[in-house]
């Protein structure tokens, strides 16, 4: 009996299995191709020079894509069976294809807003500076703020703009124009008045109100002193911020950037809320309408670490395929351009200045400890050699208290290092998140500020960082410098700032391969997205760029500054 019962059960089970194999698949076109033994690609890239950033297959000539992800790569014969009647074929005749670039450090909405404002980047004399502002004033109604930025005095020989430059051309509109690094800015007299800045206003902690020889504020404000003005500027409207996201995303796509790590709008204590507002009112709003064009990984101000911990506990890191929640960010010092990067030895041109420690270090250490304990990734801005040492020391003490784990601590900028500091990044597994194009702006004044010896030893030690085993992540810090990975890659391999006959610290030049990895797979690693992005590998998102170069040799000999097409999710997003 027992045997008969088992046999009946066996026959019934076999019947169900047979039905499932023979009939069920025909309900679905995917299963029907599976039944025929093959899967069909939506799109294939053919005859391309595909650089994958994936060590298991560094180059390929064909790539098959389905549902926004990569199915397979190889030569034509490897993917041939994936081509069906409906497969869209892109024949690239040898053109170079790269993974979509990841920019490890941007302020995306600010970048968009800046494209919508007076742009003073690249201006080379006072006349052009004033002409540009004058033109913008015409567009404003009296009383409206005139905002802009991007100026760099090194381009016109060193005179700082002052309120007196602006008062005649803008008597009725308050003006605020930030320096390219946003650690300094100039206000006109009306803006100073509205902000309550007078001759007796004391310097706030972590900032400076510069004065003229009569002791009157001259309009220039450094670091936290900028808050006095920034706090009185009315917020941009929500509509403007949303528009800025679209403007910024379109601009990024023209440069081949398909993912950014957005450090938000956290420049002053007062702006802590902005990143959170942008998350719900701009990013999630755009996502809910299907309007996201590039992927974002968002970092939030460290003072809000517990709020971020709760968000991740409730929703996870991945809010959608477009929005990824990263970690927390804070500041250790200012910038070299504004003489506020924290150095071990004084500035060459100002022997009493060692730079500025922006955030109280005890607070920073404690907040880092607790953020890390909650599982958050921590990124801290450090530019000067002393600031970098302090943050590395702090990170290592947090590791010794909280224990080993895959935490990927980051230092944003890691710009000026003591020679003995560079190897620590690799040893201590701290990610240097660096911006090669900053060197184009710093080079002209580095000797003046740091002295000959330091200027030829510490800045942008990319090869030393790699030699020490660090995973180098590249970014732009847009809008501080323009977002343009191909230009940054070129800067990192040649290190030739304008006017330089030879490379600036030639031993720190890196290879094209290392530079490409720093803007793709290592950048993905640096924000915990390397399982999904950063290389052209089966299963990952089909985000890639096509270059005008027709062969690898052509590209390697003269890397172009622009891309001819950008794809996100296997769909052409630019042009
Ligand atoms: C391009 O790919 C096709 C297959 O689609 C192949 O037949 C052809 O020979 C290739 N052309 C070149 C120039 O390699
Ligand atoms: C450190 O941070 C924790 C968590 O925010 C807080 O409870 C504690 O009071 C802080 N300790 C110090 C010394 O500030």
Brief overview, please?
InterPro entries: Amidohydro_3, Metal-dep_hydrolase_composite, Metal_Hydrolase, YtcJ-like. Helices cover 35% and strands 19% of the residues. The protein is an alpha/beta fold and 575 residues long.
Question: How would you explain this protein's 3D organization?
Answer:
The chain has 20 helices and 24 strands. It is α/β, with parallel strands linked by helices and 575 residues long. The strands form four sheets. The protein has an eight-stranded parallel β-sheet. It has a six-stranded mixed β-sheet with strand order 3-2-7-22-23-24. Residues 18-35 have low confidence and may be disordered. One 2-acetamido-2-deoxy-beta-D-glucopyranose binds next to helix 12. The chain crosses the membrane at residues 7-27.
What is the number of helices? 20
Cα separation of the termini? 73 Å
Can you tell me the CATH architecture of one domain? Roll
Number of strands: 24
* Spatial strand order of the main sheet: 8-15-16-17-18-19-20-21
Report the β-strand fraction as a percent range.
15-25%
Tell me which oligomeric state these chains represent: single chain
Q: Could you name the CATH class of one domain?
A: Alpha Beta
Compute the CA-based radius of gyration: 27 Å
Overall structural class, as computed from helix and strand content, comes to: alpha/beta
Describe the largest sheet.
8 strands, parallel
Shape: globular
Unreliable stretches: 18-35
Helix content range of the residues, please? Answer: 25-40%
According to CATH, the fold-level topology of one domain is Diaminopimelate Epimerase, Chain A, domain 1
Bound molecules: 2-acetamido-2-deoxy-beta-D-glucopyranose
Roughly what is the average pLDDT, rounded to an integer?
A: 91
Keywords: Membrane, Transmembrane, Transmembrane helix
GO molecular function, one term: hydrolase activity, acting on carbon-nitrogen (but not peptide) bonds
Protein name: Amidohydrolase 3 domain-containing protein
Pfam families: Amidohydro_3
């Amino acid at each position: 009996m027992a045997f008969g019962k088992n046999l009946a059960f066996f026959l019934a089970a076999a019947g169900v299995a047979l039905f499932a194999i023979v009939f069920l698949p025909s309900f679905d076109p995917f299963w029907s191709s599976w039944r025929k033994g093959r899967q069909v690609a939506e799109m294939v890239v053919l005859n391309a020079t595909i650089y994958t950033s994936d060590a298991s297959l560094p180059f390929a000539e064909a790539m098959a894509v389905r549902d926004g992800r990569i199915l397979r790569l190889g030569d034509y014969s490897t993917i041939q069976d994936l081509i069906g009647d409906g497969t869209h074929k892109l024949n690239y005749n040898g053109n170079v294809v790269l993974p979509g670039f990841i920019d490890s450090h941007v302020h995306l909405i600010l970048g968009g807003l800046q494209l919508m404002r007076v742009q003073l980047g690249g201006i080379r004399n006072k006349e052009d500076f004033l002409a540009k502002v004058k033109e913008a004033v015409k567009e404003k109604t009296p009383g409206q703020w005139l905002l802009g930025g991007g100026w760099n005095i090194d381009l016109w020989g060193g005179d700082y703009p002052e309120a007196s430059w602006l008062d005649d051309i803008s008597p009725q509109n308050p003006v605020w124009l930030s320096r390219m690094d946003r650690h300094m800015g100039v206000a006109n007299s009306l803006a100073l008045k509205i902000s309550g800045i007078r001759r007796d206003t004391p310097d706030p902690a972590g900032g400076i109100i510069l004065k003229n020889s009569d002791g009157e504020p001259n309009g220039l404000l450094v670091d936290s002193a900028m808050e006095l003005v920034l706090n009185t500027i009315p917020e941009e409207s929500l509509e403007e911020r949303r528009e800025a996201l679209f403007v910024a995303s379109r601009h990024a796509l023209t440069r081949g950037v398909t993912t950014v790590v957005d450090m938000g709008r956290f420049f002053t204590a007062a702006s802590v809320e902005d990143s959170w507002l942008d998350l719900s009112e701009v990013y999630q709003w755009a996502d809910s309408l299907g309007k996201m064009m590039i992927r974002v990984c968002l970092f939030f101000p460290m003072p809000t670490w517990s709020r971020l911990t709760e968000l991740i506990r409730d929703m996870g890191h991945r809010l959608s395929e477009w929005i990824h929640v990263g970690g927390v960010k804070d500041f250790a010092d200012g910038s070299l351009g504004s003489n506020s990067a924290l150095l071990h030895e004084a500035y060459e041109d100002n022997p009493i200045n060692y730079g500025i420690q922006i955030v109280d270090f005890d607070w920073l250490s404690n907040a880092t400890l607790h953020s890390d304990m909650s599982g958050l990734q921590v990124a801290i801005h450090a530019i000067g050699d002393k600031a970098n040492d302090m943050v590395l020391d702090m990170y290592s003490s947090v590791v010794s208290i909280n224990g080993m784990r895959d935490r990927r601590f980051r230092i944003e900028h890691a710009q000026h290092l003591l020679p003995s500091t560079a190897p620590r990044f690799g040893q201590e597994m701290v990610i240097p998140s660096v911006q090669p194009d900053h060197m184009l702006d710093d080079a002209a004044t580095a000797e003046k500020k740091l002295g000959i010896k330091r200027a030829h030893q510490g800045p942008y030690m990319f090869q030393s960082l790699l030699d020490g085993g660090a995973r180098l992540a590249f970014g732009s810090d847009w809008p501080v410098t323009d977002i343009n990975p191909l230009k940054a890659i070129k800067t990192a391999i040649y290190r030739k700032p304008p006017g330089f006959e030879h490379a600036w610290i030639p031993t720190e030049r890196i290879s094209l391969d290392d530079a490409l990895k720093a803007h793709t797979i290592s950048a993905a690693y640096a924000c915990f997205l390397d399982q999904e992005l950063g290389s052209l590998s089966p299963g990952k998102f089909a985000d890639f760029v096509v270059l005008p170069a027709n062969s690898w040799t052509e590209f390697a000999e003269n890397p172009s500054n622009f891309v001819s097409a950008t794809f996100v999710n296997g769909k052409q997003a630019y042009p």
